[in-house]
Every structure is written in structure tokens, then in C-alpha cells.
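Intended use. Records like the one below are meant for learning the mapping from a protein sequence to its folded structure. Do not use them to infer anything beyond what is encoded.
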Amino acid sequence: MHRMVHVAGLLLACVAASAVQAQNYPNRPITMVVPFAPGGLTDVPARMVAALLQEKVGQNVVVENKTGGSGVVGGTFAVRAAPDGYTLFANSVADTQNLHYIPVPYSAVNDFAMIGFIVEGPPLVLIVDARLPYKTLAELVVDAKANPTKLSFGTSGPASSPVIALTQLNVAAGTQIVGVPYRGSGEAARAVAGSGAIQGAFAFFSQAKPLADDGKVRALGVAGTQRIAAWPEVPTFEELGYKNFDHRGFVGLAVPAKTPKPVIDFLQKNLSEVVQTPLFKERMAALGMTVPAPADNTPEKFLTFMKEQTERQAAFSKLPGVNQTAPPR
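Structure written out for the chain above:
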């Protein structure tokens, strides 16, 4: 009996200490782990949110880029951190894709507690060399079907949205466009605009739009549910007859599982407020990204989204040929 009372006392003491810690949060610098390189599509919105949060909560929010393994290196570091709210993780679409292609030593859904969205988007855009005759996706498909393996598109490796999108197009259209891996979709987009070594690519809005404005590439379709406000003349794949052709990125915020609920609530409230500021929304719109409405940006809804996207990516991973690409350049 004495032992049970002692154990119960220890548990109550731990709970009380955790509650006090949560009440005093934050009282020291916070680290935000970004698992991709500085300046990328995950880093830019995450870094801006870190700066806005720092200003709002009165503590330094330091971004640490821990790259490698398609984001797994950073995720592994974050998931092993103490669940006290002082290590945040900027998750992304890669966290719903990786487990279907490569070993991942944690669950991006179950081993993290979700805070909310930072941004949704940008969508992938199908671009082709502007020197080619294709003015529409239909014209491209007709030529690709008539000349199997004639066309090569740049991708960025198996567990990535560009190669998944290309595979889905090949399956849906009955084409055999060859995927050629580059070190990233930005590099692939520049290759389309440059040497002519490849004829097209799926690239993100911020990578494709400047090249199109310079007349070097032509956009044939947006892989999203809506046209891009800053590029309204480019139709969506849905409009062109391709169902479920939605390859948008996202960036969210998560913390290690078992982080106290008061800390999660504090972070969610402040995140929701900073991403709704006109300055943040304006900067993200320039990158083809949008911010969900506050009612849609809760830990519960973000968790549901992560689960749905993980299931969706599982289906994509079973598409025939999803891992069949040419040797890396």
C-alpha cells in the first residue's frame, strides 16, 4: 500500500511539474527544424513564420536546417527531441510520401503532435521548352503517344511530387514520357529552359513562372484544384479531363508527441495569428502559396489532412512505373 501511495505521489509530482513548465512556456529559445536547404519551398515560409513567432512570443525562434534523406534526417532529429515545445518541426508533403519509398524510422503522423498549417501549395505546373510546338497539353499527349519515349521530362527522384505527377500522367494519358532525375525540380526547370536536353518538367510555381515570363518555357497545366491567381491563364489538369491530378505542396508545424496540450494550444493560437497577417499572406501569394482560413487551421484538421494525404500518396506509390526513371544526371 505504501509503495502504491509513493508511486501515485511521484506521478502527481510529474504532472504538476509538467503543468508548471507549460504555464511558463516559453522561457528560453525555441528551435525550428527545417529538413530541407535554406531558400527552398519548405524553408522560406517556415523561416518567415519563425521570425513572426519570435516577435510575438518574445523568445528567439532559431531555424536549423537539418537536411538529407528527403527530409528524414531532420524528422529523425525532431522526433527524438524532448516533448516540451522547444523543438518545432516544419513538415511537408515529403512526410506523406517518404514512407512509401524509403526507410523512415518514425511515423510522421503518430510520433508527432500537429500544430497546424503554415501554408498550402504551391502546385506543380507542367512546363515545356517554349521552342517546342506544343501549345496545349492535348497536343503534347498526341505527339507523346505517337512517338513513345521520344520525350524526356526532368524529375527529382522517386519519392518526390514531380516523378509521381509524371507517372500519373503517363498512366492516365497512355504515354511513355521518360523521367530524367535532377537534383531538384528547380534545376530540372532550368534545364527545360536551357540546353534542350529535356523537353519538359513538372516544376513548382515559383520555379516555373519566371522562366515563362522570360519566354523560355510554356506552361500547359496546373496540378492543383484551382488555377493560380498569379497565373490565371493556365488551366488545371482537372479542367483538361485528368481527375485527381492534384500535386500541391504544403508546409505545416508539428512537435514531438506527448508535448503538453497547453503548449500545443499556445503554439496553435500564435501560429494561426501570424499566418493570417497581411504581410505573410502577401509574401506567400507571390510564391503561389495560400493560407487556410483560421477555422480550417486547427491541430485536429491538420492531423486529418496528414492522414488523408498519407493514404493518397500510398495509392500513388502503387502506380506502374513510379520508380522507373533514367539514370541520374
